[in-house]
Amino acid sequence: MVSESGPAQSKRADARRNKETLLDAAAKVFVASGVDAPVRDIAREAGVGLGTIYRHFPTRADLVIAVYRHQVEACAEAGPALLTSSATPYAALREWINLFVDFLVTKHGLASVLRSDSAGFESLHSYFLDRLLPVCAELFDAAAAAGEVRSDLTAYELMRGVGNLCVGAEGDDRYDALRLVDVLVSGLRLLPD
């Protein structure tokens, strides 16, 4: 097999970086303004023209799905990295849960965009669970094995609890999901004897 190098490989790497920049910008705008935010706001945030967005993502649903998948991957990849770089497994779990909350806020509104495509939505939900549940379990199990958190819960229950706390954030500026999730995660902590 012949490997490509030089300009073709560099061009693909640049295209991948540009697409990631665009997805990061869209996620930021979606968090601030919801998934119905004007595409021009996303273009402005990404520093690109509208044509660039439409070339990559012909429909809003295409963009939302791409942001969703991009965020899932970023969240999944962060777990193992946090486990090796954090001071304790509990600190890694806590930091990962904060990233998970950011992801949940970003994906808020996805159902309304994909309402007519229930099979597509189910597929994304399965993808979400398949990628993130094992990461949460790894972090939670490490913290439990270290004696830092109670072990009578499962990673699935923790993710559901976090998800349920994030549901109330839509349209209510007084509701701080991250603060309430912090209370939940603090409640997992075992105090030293």
From TrEMBL:
Its keywords, alphabetically, are:
DNA-binding, Transcription, Transcription regulation
Looking up SUPFAM superfamilies in the UniProt record yields: Homeodomain-like (SSF46689), Tetracyclin repressor-like, C-terminal domain (SSF48498)
Lineage: superkingdom: Bacteria
DNA-binding region residue numbers: 38-57
TM helices/strands, residue ranges: none
Q: Does the keyword DNA-binding apply?
A: yes
Residues in HTH tetR-type domain copies:
16-75
What PANTHER family does this protein's entry cite? HTH-TYPE TRANSCRIPTIONAL REGULATOR BETI (PTHR30055:SF234), HTH-TYPE TRANSCRIPTIONAL REGULATOR RUTR (PTHR30055)
Name this protein carries in UniProt: TetR/AcrR family transcriptional regulator
Can you name the source organism? Streptomyces hokutonensis
